[in-house]
Structures are given as structure tokens and as C-alpha cells.
Amino acid sequence: MSANEKWSDLTARLGSAAAMVLIGAWGIWMGGHVFHILVAIICGLMVWELVGMLRPGTAQAQTLLGTATGLAMFASIYLPVGFALPLLLAPALAGFGYLERNRTIYMCFTVLILMSGFGMTQVRNEMGVSWMLWLVIVVIATDVVGYFAGRMIGGPKFWPAVSPKKTWSGTASGWVGAAIVGYFFALYSDVSMQLIGVSVAVSMASQMGDIAESAMKRKTGVKDSSNLIPGHGGLMDRFDGMLGATVFLLIVGQFIGFPPGLG
Question: What stretches pass through the bilayer (predicted)?
Fold first, then answer.
């Protein structure tokens, strides 16, 4: 691969990334209804993409299931957890009537998308702007540092059968990037340096989300989840890391106590 080919998508990626960062930062800063609506729209569009990959050419099913997911996500935020949980699972079951194949994949990814969206709203609502930013920056650092390191360093592939472009150098560099983020957040807050290890674990979980989506795309024979974002493909291609990271934090945070203890 020539140097030009290696970096051919960089301009489009940077422009789209800047737009996503601005919109995301605005939503996180505003919080409340603005952030809730943004998360609901993202979740609905990801399920719209998911249905399109699993059953191409079914625009009606895409629209219905995507809309149902967005509405379920938004409504669940304002309900007690006991009532929110069945609402979060309902779109996953609803898809069984529209899909003839890949129902298990649809169910698993839809639950993952909705639980991730719910987790993000919980982090923003209960922990505030700073910890929501920490989560997003850890995922972005994992992706960006891994992207550039993988292309500059190269080396052995991480899992070529599933993700042909991903290298061990990029994967490990993503962990380093997340550790640096965790270090600076711990340094300038009242939490312990254990946040470094938590950040690396969240980074790994985000990479697992990325790998899971890559495996699903490989199975369905598609390159990108959609063409919504120039240079990036679809929303699932950009938010797959957030899916893994947020669900991991939502579950593990209940056991380890998050944020980690005072330094």
C-alpha cells in the first residue's frame, strides 16, 4: 500500500470527526433533554443501520425498528429503572417479526445499543459533564491513537480474518492513549490513580465493541454500516467502541465503585 493510499481517507475522516466532536460536545455540555434527544436519535439510527445490514432492501422495517428504538430509548430515561428495563428490551424482541435470518445478531446488538445509550445518560445525569467527557475521550483516544499508530508502525495484524486493517501496534497504542487520559483525569480530580487501569479496561472494552461490529459486517458482507458519515461509514462504525465501553462501565461500575476511591 502506497503512502497516498494509506492516508487517502484522512481529509474526509478529519472533517466528519470535527463535526461529530462539536455536536457531541454541545450535547454533553447542554445535558438534560438535549443530550437525551441526541442519544435517542443516535440509538435509533444505529438500529436503522443494523436492520439494513441484516436484511437489505427493507426500508419499512428499518424505519419502524429504528423509530421504535429511538422512542424506547428516550422514554426509558424518564422512567424508574424497573419500568425502563422492559422498554429497553422491547425493540430487540420486536425485530423477530421482521427478520427471517440473523435474529440473534439483531437481538444482541439492539440490546447492546439500548443499554449503551441508557448507560451514557446515566453517566451524564448522575456524574456530570466531566465523567461523560472522560468516557468519550478514552474511546476517542483509543480509536485515534490506534488509527495513527497502526498506520505509522504497522506490523502483525490483530485479527485479519475479522478486521484486516487492525494491527497489534495500533491496538496496544490505543491502551497507552487511554492510560494517558486516565492519568491526567486522576491527576486533576479527587480520584485515585486506579483510574488509569479502569481507563485501559474501558479502552479494551471499546475495542471489543469494534471487533464485534467488524465480525458482524464480515458475516453480512458489508464494508460499512451505512454511508451517513463521509470518511467514516455509518454511526455504528463510529460508535461501536462506545457501545462496548459504556456497557462495560455500566456493569462493572456497580461492582468496583466508580469513580475509584479518593487519591
Answer: 12-29, 35-54, 75-98, 104-121, 128-148, 168-188, 242-262
DSSP 8-state assignment for residue 233? B
Q: Is 253 exposed, middle or buried (0-12, 13-18, 19+ CB in 10 A)?
A: middle
- Are the C-beta atoms of 130 and 189 separated by less than 8 Å? yes
Instruction: Report the candidate in 239, 176, 254, 169 with the shortest Cα–Cα distance to residue 209.
Output: 239
CA distances from 197 to 121, 133, 181, 259 (A): 23, 17, 11, 12
Q: Can you give the residue ranges of every domain in the chain? A: 31-126, 128-263
Other C-beta atoms lying within 10 Å of the C-beta of residue 151: 17
- Tens place of pLDDT per residue across the chain (263 aa): 445 555 455 666 677 778 888 999 999 999 999 999 999 999 999 999 999 999 887 888 899 999 999 999 999 999 998 889 999 999 999 888 788 888 899 999 999 999 999 999 999 999 999 999 999 999 999 988 888 887 888 777 877 777 777 888 888 999 999 999 999 999 988 889 999 999 999 999 999 999 998 889 888 888 878 888 776 678 888 888 999 999 999 988 888 888 877 54
**CB under 8 A, 24+ apart: contacts of 70-74:** 70/40, 70/41, 70/43, 70/44, 70/45, 71/40, 71/44, 72/114, 73/39, 73/40, 73/43, 73/44, 73/114, 73/117, 73/118, 74/36, 74/37, 74/40
Query: What are the grid coordinates assigned to 257, written together?
Result: 465503585
